[in-house]
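Before a colleague's protein record goes any further, I have to sign it off. What it holds is a sequence and that sequence's fold in token form. Would you go through it and say whether the fold makes sense for this chain? The record follows directly below this note.
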Amino acid sequence: MAIDGELWDVAVTIARQRVRGREWLKADVEDLASYALTKLQKAAQREEIDNHEGYLSRVIRNRVIDLALKRDAEARHLVIAQDELPIKAVGKGGGASVEVRRGGGPVRGLSLEVIQKEERELMRLFAAAVVAVMPDEWDRAVLADRIYGGSSMTVTDLARRHGKTPNVMANYLGRVLGSDEQPGAVASVKTMIDNLSVRQADAYVRVLLGHVDTLELLSDPFAAALGHLEVAASYSAQHRRDAKLAIARLNWLRGHLPNKRGLPNQILRRLISTACLYVVEQSDANDDRFDRGLADDVAVLTAAFAAVRRHAG
């Protein structure tokens, strides 16, 4: 069957109704409509569909449910559960052995706090940033499996897949994601995302995802950002004011750049490099050429400033 404009409008209208109250899906209305129309077209080749609108409504409803379940799975996998965290126990002869705790509820650590306090969209962006900000490909692969691997992906499964013992893997996840006793290495990512609006965080994470493998190769990201701000300052008096504040933030970050020792500092350095790249990006959350076009650049640099002040070792 051929898809006409009228059916497209019907699908878009249904999709808008279905995503109402789900801010994290509002940008995907057209994707949902396109998905449902493709399913309708394929189904019509096999059998006659009498009620096109009803079919589209059913497909979109089921798709929204599937996406919501996937997001819930991602949220659960940003939490290290009590029965996954290893503890030290005294063995025979006073020697220390390691065993895995059993029972209990989820640890009220970094990730659960983010999920409870922030919009679901910010949670999704935080999850994506946690994976992308890791400096090593192995780390990114482990965390991607942990977050996006589905509810059936246990710590034991992760350990087997990535060549570690379950205890070593549980310890690693605890160090990265954190627990109620100790903030994880990605605590600075939470601070970064917390200090941005959804629009700014989305643009920032897009920059991060676009430079996952090249952040360590940048020769002088500060110089590039400063050069861009010097040009943008000429656009208007407001641009000059915002550029002056942004340059002050950049100079502070360059003077307080964390050393490379330890994963938390390595993550901070990658967050800062991404902030510099964000400044250079003209069409980010606010196009730099327009009125208050540098306001989001100032916000991103201020968020990086807050992350360094709070988490630099």
Remarks:
- The chain has three domains: 5-76, 82-107+134-185, 190-311.
- Residues 191 and 306 are 7 Å apart (CA to CA).
- The longest helix spans residues 52-76.
